[in-house]
Amino acid sequence: MEMMNTYDLFMFRTSKIQGEWLKFIHRLDENLEKSLKQSVKNTLLDLGKHIIGDKARGELVPIFKIYTILDPNNTQWKIIHDPAHEELKSNIQNFNKKIIDVTRVIPRIEKIFRSRRQNKIEELKKELDESDKSGGNTYQAFAKAGMKPDMNYQNLTQEEKESNWKAKWELPKPMEERSEYQVRISTNKKIK
Predict the structure, then answer these.
(1) Nearest one of 121, 122, 155 to 138, comparing CA atoms
(2) Which residues lie below 8 Å from residue 147, measured CB to CB, with a gap of 6+?
């Protein structure tokens, strides 16, 4: 939210400035993804220490208990594990899945940024069009947005307005189609 409030100061500036904002947002997305991957990886490593112990310290810190019982009533003794190996394996896999699924609710920053920017620009366009249709002064709408008034706006045809509007407000580069964090993390080789 704070970042979008800061961006409001630069929203109506040149495409070069918009390009710099996109680079900044892209770097934030990459850093967030890297942090999420590292966090999930550390959690899984910590889980591994609890299951197999910390080899560096030579100690076990179990969170699962496996009981081995020798049955005195049976002439052929056998080892009974409680919980069973398959149940333990299933629980660990479910836990891992839940850790990774937590990242599903974290959206890409660029997607939020573009969506909020688009909404603000559409609000301005709607205000300008309403002012133009009512024969009002479009200068006030431009001034409200902190922009220099466009002298020709009222004299343009609808097609020219659309073309100029698109040229003026389209971001320098389209949004990169990238998978969401959860997909990227769940397919990461180090995490697998």
Answers:
(1) 155
(2) 12
Our measurement of the distance from residue 51's CA atom to the centroid of its chain's CA atoms, rounded to an integer in Å, reads: 31
pLDDT in tens, the chain (192 residues): 677 778 877 777 777 888 888 889 889 989 998 998 888 888 888 877 766 666 666 666 565 566 666 667 776 666 666 677 788 778 888 888 888 888 888 888 888 888 888 888 888 778 777 776 776 666 666 666 556 665 566 666 778 777 776 777 777 777 777 778 888 888 877 777
Q: Which of 28, 27, 26, 180 is nearest to 107 (CA)?
A: 180
Evaluate whether 110 touches 30 at the Cβ level (below 8 Å).
no
**Do β-strands 67-70 and 79-82 pair in parallel, antiparallel, or remain unpaired?**
antiparallel
The residue range of the domain holding 44 is 2-64+100-186
- Structurally, the chain folds into a number of domains equal to 1
In a domain, 115, yes or no: yes
> pTM of whole model > 0.85?
no
77 belongs to a structural domain: no
Residue 17 lies in a domain: yes
Q: Judge whether 71 lies within some domain.
A: no
